[in-house]
Amino acid sequence: MKIIVIVKEVPDTYGERKLDLETGLADRAASEPVLDEIGERALEVALSHADANEAEVVVMSMAPERAAATIRKGLAMGAASAVQVADPGLAGADLGLTARTLAAAIRKTGFDLVITGNLSTDGSGGVLPAMLAELLDVPNLTALSSVEIAADSVSGGRDSDDGTMRLSAKLPAVISITEALPDARFPNFKGIMAAKKKPFETLAAADLGIDPQDLSVAASIMTAIAEKPPRSAGVKITDEGDGGVKIAEFLVENRLA
Amino acid sequence: MTDYPADPILVLLEATPTGELAKSAAGLLGAASLIGTPVALAVTAAGRSQAIAEQAAAAGAERVLVVETEAVVARLSVPIADALAAAAAVVAPDAVLISNSMEGRDVAGRFAARTSAALAVDAVGLSRDAEGVIAHHSVYGGAYNVDSAATFGPLVVTVREGAVEARAEARPVAIETLEPQPSGKAAASIESFESVTATSTRPELKGATKVVSGGRGLGSAESFALVEQLADTLGAAIGASRAAVDAGYIPQSHQVGQTGVSVSPHLYVALGISGAIQHRAGMQTAKTIVAVNKDPDAPIFEVADFGVVGDVFTVVPQLISALAERKK
Ligand SMILES: Cc1cc2nc3c(=O)[nH]c(=O)nc-3n(C[C@H](O)[C@H](O)[C@H](O)COP(=O)(O)OP(=O)(O)OC[C@H]3O[C@@H](n4cnc5c(N)ncnc54)[C@H](O)[C@@H]3O)c2cc1C
Predict the structure, then answer these.
(1) CATH number at B210-327
(2) CATH number at B8-177
(3) Fewest beta carbons within 10 Å, which of A231, B135, B140, B184?
(4) Is the Cβ pair A140, B77 closer than 8 Å?
């Protein structure tokens, strides 16, 4: 079985994240780039399946050239190979172009199962898994908080405010997982050394028959961007036995209670 | 019927498991009414569309297109995407508005990919200028406001639940039945659905005007009841940090933050929450923030309008009785 895990380099959420006010793109120099945590959990789902079964795990990402080091972490964790679609023409790609490019790369690589995170921490779109499923003409099982992978099928549970849904599909399929699934393993020294020798394929848009400049396809574009002034701290008091009463007074004064 | 309004905005309605119109619909129809004429689509199991269509008209749908199919309870996403594609083909909308829910995101993704339409996600508002529909987004935890638009063609937009306050005026009920051709696209099977019995009379977290949240500082699932008591005193919804969710104090659907729900209430009360940047990302656009934490250096105080350095187990019970006292 061949499992492709889609991962993404994102600005570390522990730092201050900035957008470039000229281009509207993420200011990659402003914060530490990391592998998105949810993508690492997706990789963990694939690797723990591969630990006990016959499976080849490929990490794939569409990201600028310099993200290679971040993607390599997926190899150090245990993926067998990596595919990076890196093309200056794809900078600022909207969701449609991203989905078409990744779908072409997935098709070229070949797959039985594609695993992604449910939501990235930077875009928070959560639509990419369904877009990939549509373009690949396979089922989507999205936002799973439990996953069972079998030889020719995949199933899982999806929790929402309304209840729990059980989903299943024959492979090939695209699934996305939530952070209810376990934390990812850490790459160990052996893994980091082995990663250096693993296949790492870099593809350009043209290798996939994608023209990023194709204006005949509708795209979503950013038309304005503004930074909001940061919030400032207000009053801070230390409880001297009347902290609760003080809050009650504050709420009443501000017509909040 | 071909007499569609000149500026139609197609709104995908969602139904609850019990067949009621989902709460998100009023905001979607309200948003649509700001930028055009709301035309709604309901995709339901047999015999379920009439009630939903009536509720949608009351919430401002000029016309309700209905598709009744058993496939909607048997197969994920694809039957709704098929119905939406059929509705868009007849209505030729300027924009398609879909709830940014699990189901909504999947349908929006499939529909936009299938029709090669521009897609804008997690919008908190919509407007229109001479060139067309504009989606407004609040990104990086509310640090930036960003607008987006389509280069051409309809803009498909997922709208953050509870973010739009506008409401549309009620309309007379006008129903039209569609019978779309199934696309034959592969879909996952829905094996079962176990609904949680909604016994709670508390406000829903998404779109709540007041939120009381608890963190790891509450220490146990039993002590988390303190958060619930204050929430009930204030008529607030209940939120939590990821640490509180991970510790099993409360289900994940209450998580506020980066990877949870984003809220913008009038009042946000953080109890025993350190205020990690990922938590703040989901609540720092609240109008007023109150925090109780025993660590004077907790980062939550950097964004709090009123902070008390103290123990939640003494401060909060006193707060509850002070508020109860006033109500008498
Ligand atoms: C990719 C990613 C996404 C994340 N997404 C989210 C998210 O969506 N939401 C989220 O919340 N977190 C998220 N986190 C986790 C986040 O980094 C923090 O770990 C989490 O918010 C901490 O929760 P907490 O404040 O409850 O716990 P802690 O940081 O442990 O803080 C507990 C606080 O309680 C105080 N306290 C203890 N006892 C008492 C008492 N008796 N009285 C008063 N105060 C007391 C302590 O002083 C402390 O400040 C994410 C992390 C990552 C990496």
Answers:
(1) 3.40.50.1220
(2) 3.40.50.620
(3) B184
(4) yes
CB pairs under 8 A between A and B: 287
A133 CA to centre of ligand 1 in angstroms: 35
Ligand 1 centre distance from Cα of residue B260 (Å):
13
Q: Parallel, antiparallel, or unpaired: how do β-strands B118-129 and B132-139 relate?
A: antiparallel
CATH number of the domain residue A141 falls in: 3.40.50.620
Task: Give the residue among B110, B186, B79, B190 at the shortest CA–CA distance from A172.
Answer: B186
- Helix, coil or strand: residue A186: coil
Instruction: Tell me if A202 is assigned to some domain.
Output: yes
User: For atom 51 of ligand 1, which residue has the closest CA?
Assistant: B278
| Helix and strand counts by DSSP (H, E) for chain B | 9, 15
Q: How far apart are the first and last CA of chain B?
A: 59
Among the atoms of ligand 1, which is closest to the Cα of residue B216?
Answer: 26
Neighbours of B82 (CB within 10 A): 27
Return the exposure string of A182-204: e unless at least 16 CB atoms fall within 10 Å of the residue's CB, then b. Answer: eebeebeeebeeebeebebeebe
Q: Is A245 on the interface with B (CB under 8 A)?
A: yes
Alpha-carbon gap, residue A55 to A198, rounded angstroms: 16
Element (H or E) spanning A155, and its range?
strand A153-159
In this predicted structure, the answer to whether residue A123 has a pLDDT above a threshold of 80 is no
Query: What residue type is assigned to position B267 of the chain?
Result: L
Q: What is the mean pLDDT of chain A?
A: 94
Is the distance from CB of B10 to CB of B24 less than 8 angstroms?
A: no
Task: Round to whole Å and give the CA distance between B83 and A63.
Answer: 34
Nearest to B151 among A133, A221, A248 (CB): A221
CA-closest residue to ligand 1 atom 39: B217
Q: Please report, in tens digits, the pLDDT of each residue of chain B (328 residues total).
A: 567 888 999 999 999 888 899 999 999 999 999 999 999 999 999 999 999 999 999 999 999 999 999 999 999 999 999 999 999 999 999 999 999 999 999 999 999 999 999 999 999 999 999 999 999 999 988 899 999 999 999 999 999 999 999 999 999 999 999 999 999 999 999 999 998 866 678 899 999 999 999 999 999 999 999 999 999 999 999 999 999 999 999 999 999 999 999 999 999 999 999 999 999 999 999 999 999 999 999 999 999 999 999 999 999 999 999 999 988 7
Q: CA B316 to CA B45: how far, in whole Å?
A: 47
Domain residue spans of chain B:
8-177, 210-327
Which domain does A13 fall in, by range? Answer: 2-208
Say if A224 falls within a structural domain.
Answer: no
Our count of domains for chain A comes to 1
Structure tokens at B280: 């703040």
pTM: 0.94
A233 located within any domain = no
> How many A from CA of B275 to the centre of ligand 1?
6
- What is the structure's pLDDT at A30? 78
Q: What is the DSSP string of B183-223?
A: ------EEEEEEE------SPPSTT-SEEEEE-GGG-STTT
Buried b (16+ CB within 10 A) or exposed e, B119-146: bbbbbbbbebeeebbbbbbbbbbbbbbb
Any domain includes A250: no
